[in-house]
Amino acid sequence: MMRRKNGNKRYFTRMGTRKKVHAFVRVKPTDDFAHEMIKYGDDNKSIDIHLKKDLQRGVVNNKQTDWSFKLDGVLHNASQDLVYETVAKDVVAQALNGYNGTIMCYGQTGAGKTYTMTGATENYKHRGILPRALQQVFRMIAERPTHAITVRVSYLEIYNESLFDLLSTLPYVGPSVTPMTIVENPQGVFVKGLSVHLTSQEEDAFSLLFEGETNRIIASHTMNKNSSRSHCIFTIYVEAHSRTLSDEKYITSKINLVDLAGSERLGKSGSEGRVLKEATYINKSLSFLEQAIIALGDQKRDHIPFRQCKLTHALKDSLGGNCNMVLLTNIYGEAAQLEETLSSLRFASRMKLVTTEPAINEKYDAERMVKNLEKELVLLKQELAIHDSLANRTLVNYDPMDEIQIAEINSQVRRYLEGTLDEIDIINLRQIQEVFNQFRVVLSQQEQEVEATLRRKYTLIDKNDFAAISAVQKAGLVDVDGHLVGEPDGQGFGLGVTPYSTKPGKKSKSKKMFKEQLGSLARKEGAGSPVSGKDLEVSTSKTQLTPSSKEGDVKELPLRDRETSSIEPLPSDSPKEESRPPRPSTPPPKPVAFEDFKNERGSEINRIFKENKSILNERRKRASETTQRINAIKREMDVTKEALNFQKSLREKQGEYENKGLMIIDEEEFLLILKLKDLKKQYRAEYQDLRDLRAEVQYCQHLVDQCRHRLLTEFDIWYNESFFIPEDMQVSLKPASGIRPGMVPISRLVALGEDDQDKFSQLQQMMLPEGPDSISFYNAKVKTEQKRNYLKTMMGLQQGHRK
């Protein structure tokens, strides 16, 4: 077990056994699959590549034409469910037991990495690894009621070697003032400035995921219409505390879900301008990633180049760290992409050589640890009390000693040294320690008294201070042999005993000169005194009795009184009580009171409600018109198809004409084909507009429901205050009082009638196609689309106003 400290927290990591990284391959489905060049093993754990020998290079051609790669699994024509069950399910499950996990998608551009990691948000069945991992985490949390588990998420984007927070667009986050940086500490690598969001339910996590997905940078080229132009790391942080055990230990873990940007061959992708610059950064970072993987696979290498780029630095914990690492390589199955497929498979083979050491991350809560130690202390005191009672020892106190008890022990020590006390009674270990402490205090005080007495009578000189001795010799206070003038007292001090002929109270001329020379030497040498503090200074004990701080408290007391008295009462900011008309004896009918409320106190809310309702009706009207146009286009398409089929059958009966392998058709059939093509184009455009309008209708419906609820709530509060609450209690409902408006419960009095369209919209939301498990997924998707369409509409309105 390895222990690490950081502040008040202690981190323990149980060292596990080393294991190799799991590597899987997913082949993108295609109609042009190279069956002659790509072969799968019978166990679906190997893939063989065969290239035909190029005869143009001559008979002697040593170019390699066959490759075989051993992997942990080959996923061909696999569904999203099978991919998640095979690749990610075990990693996510072990994360709730304290093991870190990393799942990385690697491959060339357009091979299906983003589809594998995120999936298609339009269809619940086609969701990828990331939303499925969130679902599994919250499902396992619901199955563990004995633990309090907290989930947090973050979404990092690395674009052109710059770090971006994909969740910074949320209103409560805002853009960061300082740029984000990658920082290392004893607990691992983290990104300073990256926002981490608490998610208490599955729908909130999906909303954050979809919010980040809308902020990702994508571009189009010949290989992929929606190519990711950045590396993205979605991290799930898990923290689990036990509800049943009072243990201060808890576990933490994190799951890194990495969607790498695809490597590109510029000749095939045809990238230009900004897309070309992005491709350069992508290929550069992926090459640095491969260098780090090669270094990790080499056991003789001491240095791993993690700091070459932001990607490898951010993934330092995941690559060869203490986590469960899984690589999913996405490849093409077409012959035209065989070179990139070989490169991706080589990367997967190198990744299998990397070993990790998964370990449980345990932390200790300092607050809970203190509480447990206090409980243990109470139990130990109880056991001591039982032991003392059995040994007939009474009145034994194990608490820390106060100043009175310490002063009593000091008095006993002094009497013992003077001989007036024969022995000191031993009570407990704390009292023994204090007795020795007071011995040290008394000894220190006596040393100080002796030194002070000697300083009053004599001038003390350090024997090791040669400068002072030479000055004394020049002053004539030392004889030729180096002995001090006078008789030594034999106590080990370098001092001169004054002759008896010297008169007290007078200083000799030589001594005066000696002191002046010593003073000049002290000023030259920078010393405070001619005597070294090492030999003559006596340090006092740390446990010496110090005067009580009560005097300081008494001195501070008048200051606090002055500060308190200087605070003047603040003027009241509450508005003056408005004059109210006399209350009627009987409350008016609720419909009448509701109309009065809408015209007076609730006029602003009612105005907003009417505006939102009018916008909602306008969007519904537009959606209805668009639906009618789509139906008309569909009917016209059906008629055109029938006419085209009739022309085709007529042509087959009359005989078909061919010219150089091309079918010859008449002008009427050609015009029908062009018309059908135009109708399909119109149908797709109208259908896209209808989808956008439906999203706007849902968002407007949400705003209308909020305004309706707010209007009813405010009316309930107003009706209670105006007609039901006694007048003597009206004072309690003022702004400065302790009771807030609306604290008095009342049932709903008036309900705004919902039209048929409202009821149909709510019923449509309830009848979801994929069952109860898809509710959170679709709710988060709808909210994200509503927000995006709302922002798009508002930007369009602002641009219209500017024009």
TrEMBL record:
Keywords associated with the record: ATP-binding, Cell projection, Cilium, Coiled coil, Cytoplasm, Cytoskeleton, Flagellum, Microtubule, Motor protein, Nucleotide-binding, Phosphoprotein
Record's compositionally biased regions (Polar residues): 538-549
Pfam families associated with the record: KIF9, Kinesin
GO MF, any single term: microtubule binding
Amino acid composition bias (Basic and acidic residues), ranges on this chain: 550-565
Region (Disordered): 489-596
Kinesin motor domain location: 20-354
Record field: compositional bias (Pro residues): 582-591
Record: residues binding ATP: 107-114
Any GO BP annotation: microtubule-based movement
Subcellular location: Cytoplasm, Cytoskeleton, Flagellum axoneme
Coiled-coil region(s): 363-390
Gene Ontology cellular component annotations, sorted alphabetically: microtubule
Quaternary state and interactors: Interacts with HYDIN.
Xref: PANTHER family: CENTROMERE PROTEIN E, KINESIN FAMILY MEMBER 5A
Stated family: Belongs to the TRAFAC class myosin-kinesin ATPase superfamily. Kinesin family.
Function per UniProt: Essential for normal male fertility and for progressive motility of spermatozoa.
Name of the protein in question: Kinesin-like protein
Naturally occurring in which organism (per UniProt): Zalophus californianus (California sealion)
Gene that encodes the chain: KIF9
